[in-house]
UniProtKB/TrEMBL annotation:
<dbReference type="InterPro" id="IPR001638">
    <property type="entry name" value="Solute-binding_3/MltF_N"/>
</dbReference>
<dbReference type="InterPro" id="IPR000014">
    <property type="entry name" value="PAS"/>
</dbReference>
<dbReference type="Pfam" id="PF07730">
    <property type="entry name" value="HisKA_3"/>
</dbReference>
<dbReference type="InterPro" id="IPR036890">
    <property type="entry name" value="HATPase_C_sf"/>
</dbReference>
<feature type="domain" description="PAC">
    <location>
        <begin position="527"/>
        <end position="578"/>
    </location>
</feature>
<dbReference type="Pfam" id="PF00497">
    <property type="entry name" value="SBP_bac_3"/>
</dbReference>
<dbReference type="InterPro" id="IPR035965">
    <property type="entry name" value="PAS-like_dom_sf"/>
</dbReference>
<keyword id="KW-0808">Transferase</keyword>
<feature type="domain" description="PAS">
    <location>
        <begin position="447"/>
        <end position="524"/>
    </location>
</feature>
<dbReference type="InterPro" id="IPR013655">
    <property type="entry name" value="PAS_fold_3"/>
</dbReference>
<dbReference type="InterPro" id="IPR001610">
    <property type="entry name" value="PAC"/>
</dbReference>
<dbReference type="InterPro" id="IPR000700">
    <property type="entry name" value="PAS-assoc_C"/>
</dbReference>
<keyword id="KW-0418">Kinase</keyword>
<feature type="signal peptide">
    <location>
        <begin position="1"/>
        <end position="21"/>
    </location>
</feature>
<feature type="domain" description="PAC">
    <location>
        <begin position="396"/>
        <end position="446"/>
    </location>
</feature>
<dbReference type="InterPro" id="IPR005467">
    <property type="entry name" value="His_kinase_dom"/>
</dbReference>
<keyword id="KW-0732">Signal</keyword>
Length: 796
């Protein structure tokens, strides 16, 4: 009751200051996002059936819950259909996600392992971990003041229990497997408090068994719920983010209250605090009401008096204000205005005309127009007067040279208009000083001439492409004379709409050229293209086209570009690519020879040295049988020699294995599992391996290459990653064999320039020699992922 009074008082005090809350508009999506949504009208939603987030009513055959209602809002905002997929636990859901069966999942928390599978949105809901006690307490509880004799029940193992151990080392924690058992311990007085998250508490609080419990505090470890989307659909992540932001905050609060708010009361600091606060707010309420009533009475009297005075003032000043506004507009106009009588003498001049003609205020009055334009005689003036008076030619406009008071001249734009005011007739002359316009025109002509000179000396073709605002058609208003030397066509020929630059492109490259140019034209963006062109004589040349877009003041979109001959540089580039390819082939050959030499040395070491050591071991055993009983010292030396021979046996096996592990003869899958177990034995780091049971036939070179890449990657993990787990995955994806190596170590920032790690360079070169691709992704603090793809069948 006290809380209701407090909220009612606050709402009454703030009611005059608040209006109706504005509705939140729908998500504003970009053109690319709307296009993506138009292509994906159905989205598959994965749900873990766990109340109150999601539950399935068998009788009604329908889903309900906080996450279900959220996704329905999101689907309505984005105008998409949802296909529901239900799972019993998170492990089944993640397995379905890896199989590509779901597109997005609500209600997940962000983890380092989950970042490899999902893209997460910003949190849309906060689920706190609450401290529950009995209602006979005096108020809220601070865990830092709880003594070590007080038992606190919490589910173990869990992140909440780990947080309580690290944050409150003095707590006496009692672990239970389920939240229900924690509340039952609280009721049976085997524990004083229980820690349970708000969602589970809302589910259990409706049961009569737990009706006498209450929330006495917040542990401080909230669970942030997010919407997870497929990593290979980054557009969907942006669309979901916009959709979540479009949902009003009060709707999210109502969703939280409806599904997650427990039915227990939240105990405050103390009952006396709320009593005192209620009394204080009541006193403030009475004082505010009295002040408001007195102010309203005073305001009513003042408004009546002011209204009467205002009406009187408005009536008196309306006509004077209109006159002043008209006079002010004419006086302050930037255009010079002269009222001229039929005898060409000035009757009125505004300030702009006086300044333009160089006269003091009032000095222009009664002067004839011939003082300002010497060539204007009386006959010419009267002829202009008659034409304007008869309105046969409408407004007359011309350019002339006017003379200032100091004798200097300036170009002016003169407009004549006839005016009849009461019984008098005037010719209104509007003057505009166009000196700046002439200067700009001269500068523009000089700039055009400079552009023509620059374009004539550019080793290529300079062009401008414009798109009409009305028709949308494309035209070339300018093409430089360099078109003759580049393609053998004159600028006039290339400016023809049916010719243009597209006619120069080689037939084999036209599809790529049209794709690049059409994309730039549709998006009003810059574009760049390299390809072959054909000259008028049929000669083939390599050319590069670059165009920069800009929008003129009238909205016209233009592309300024240049086309130049890059045949020589392209020839050098092709020769360089050929040289690199030969070097890579040579490197692959040397690597193959090196692996064959390693295999040969491994066989010789294993066979030759193994046979010698076997003979030596037999001879030592024979000596031991023949002479060991004769001399105890000799027996001890023979035992020492046998130990050394056993060590040599192990050393020979290790050397042969390091040169070429025999497990490679059993296939790459067995070799990966063998290397993983060996890595675990050396580093004590768990290594999770997933390999298919049956693989298509793979060449020996590819098996050895993949195995060497795996060895190098695991060596980097051992030296630098400081990881806790490593995951190795070998899979067949289409026509490629994919090897993935992931760790949860400290990660690093990949180099953007020249790489400094020779291990990464070596792995990349091995992958290129195998005809595949290498992808390396690492984020500091979130681990590293290395993905290698090689074709199962060699490309011819």
């Amino acid at each position: 009751m006290r809380r209701f009074c407090y909220l009612w008082v606050i709402g009454w005090l703030w009611l005059p200051l608040m209006g109706n809350a504005a509705s939140v508009p729908a998500a504003q999506l970009s053109a690319d996002q709307r296009e993506w949504l138009a292509q994906h009208k159905e989205l598959r939603v994965g749900l873990v059936l766990q109340a109150p987030y999601a539950k399935f009513d068998q009788r009604l055959q329908q889903l309900s819950g906080a996450n279900v209602e959220l996704m329905k809002w999101l689907a309505q905002a984005l105008d998409v259909e949802l296909i529901w997929r239900n799972y019993q636990d998170l492990a089944q859901l993640e397995q379905a996600a890896r199989a590509g069966e779901i597109d997005l999942v609500p209600g997940l928390t962000q983890t380092p392992a989950g970042l490899r599978l999902w893209q997460f949105s910003d949190p849309y809901m906060r689920v706190p971990q609450l401290l529950v006690g009995t209602r006979n307490g005096t108020g809220s509880v601070d865990l830092e003041r709880v003594d070590s004799q007080t038992r606190v029940a919490v589910r173990m193992p869990s992140a909440t229990a780990d947080f309580l151990r690290s944050s409150y080392p003095g707590l006496n924690l009692q672990g239970v497997p389920l939240e229900r058992q924690a509340l039952q311990l609280l009721l049976s007085q085997q524990a004083t408090y229980a820690v349970i998250d708000e969602a589970q508490l809302s589910r259990l609080s409706v049961e009569p068994e737990f009706a006498e419990l209450a929330v006495v505090g917040d542990v401080g470890l909230p669970q942030l719920l997010r919407v997870a989307t497929r990593r290979d659909w980054p557009q969907l992540a942006g669309i979901v983010e916009r959709g979540l932001h479009a949902i009003p905050a009060r709707d999210m609060e109502q969703l939280h209250s409806r599904w997650l708010q427990p039915k227990y009361p939240h105990l405050g600091p103390s009952p006396g605090f709320w009593q005192n606060l209620s009394l204080l707010m009541g006193a403030l309420l009475l004082a505010s009401m009295a002040i408001v009533v007195w102010q309203r009475r005073q305001q009513t009297g003042l408004e009546r008096a002011l209204l009467s005075a205002r009406e009187d003032i408005v009536l008196r000043t309306a006509s004077a204000q209109a006159l002043r506004l008209s006079q002010f507009s004419i006086d302050q106009s930037p255009v010079g205005i002269l009222w001229v009588n039929w005898d060409s003498h000035v009757r009125y001049a505004n300030r702009a005309a006086e300044v333009m003609l160089g006269y003091q205020p009032g000095a222009v009055l009664d002067r004839p127009l011939s003082d300002f334009e010497p060539g204007l005689n009386m006959d010419r003036w009267l002829n202009m007067w008659r034409r304007a008076r008869n309105r046969k030619e409408g407004v007359h406009r011309s350019e002339t040279l006017c003379v200032r008071a100091d004798g200097s001249e300036f170009p002016a734009d003169v407009t004549l208009s006839f005016l009849r005011f009461q019984t008098a007739e005037y010719l209104v002359v509007y003057l505009n000083d166009i000196t700046e316009r002439h200067r700009v025109q001269a500068a523009l002509q000089e700039s055009d001439a400079r552009l023509q000179g620059i374009a004539a000396n550019v080793p290529g073709l300079v062009f401008r492409l414009e798109r009409s605002l009305l028709t949308g058609e494309l035209d070339f208003p300018y093409i430089s004379e360099g078109s003759e030397s580049l393609a053998g066509f004159s600028p006039a020929t290339l400016r023809l709409r049916e010719v243009g630059l597209r006619s120069l492109v080689h037939p084999d490259d036209r599809a790529d050229y049209h794709r690049v140019q059409d994309l730039a034209l549709d998006s009003d963006s810059d574009w760049s293209w390299q390809g072959r062109i054909l000259t008028r004589q049929g000669e083939q040349r390599w050319a590069e086209i670059k165009a920069i877009t800009r929008r003129l003041d009238d909205g016209t979109v233009v592309w300024d570009g240049i086309v130049w001959d890059i045949s020589e540089s392209k020839r050098i580039e092709l020769e360089l690519d050929s040289s690199r390819g030969q070097l890579r082939e040579l490197s692959a050959h040397l690597e193959s020879v090196r692996e064959e030499e390693k295999a040969r040395i491994a066989r010789e070491v294993h066979d030759e040295l193994g046979q010698m050591l076997t003979v030596l071991k037999l001879e030592t055993s024979m000596c031991e049988l023949a002479y060991a009983q004769l001399d105890p010292g000799l027996n001890e030396r023979l035992n020492s020699m046998k130990k050394l021979i056993a060590q040599l046996f192990q050393l020979v096996r290790d050397v042969a294995t390091s040169l070429r592990p025999p497990i490679l003869d059993a296939g790459i899958s067995s070799a990966i599992e063998w290397q993983a177990r060996r890595f675990e034995a050396r580093t004590h780091i768990p290594c999770l391996v997933q390999v298919p049971e049956h693989l298509p036939p793979l060449g020996a070179a590819k098996e050895v290459g993949l195995f060497r890449i795996l060895q190098e990657a695991l060596t980097n993990v051992m030296r630098h990653a400081h990881a806790h787990t490593v995951e190795l995955t070998l899979s067949v994806e289409g026509k490629d064999l994919c090897l993935s190596i992931s760790d949860d170590g400290q990660g690093f920032v990949p180099a953007t320039g020249r790489p400094t790690s020779f291990g990464v360079v070596g792995m990349r070169e091995r992958v290129l020699m195998l005809g595949g691709t290498l992808f390396l992704h690492s984020v500091p603090g979130e681990g590293t992922t290395l993905i290698v793809r090689v074709p199962l069948v060699d490309k011819s």
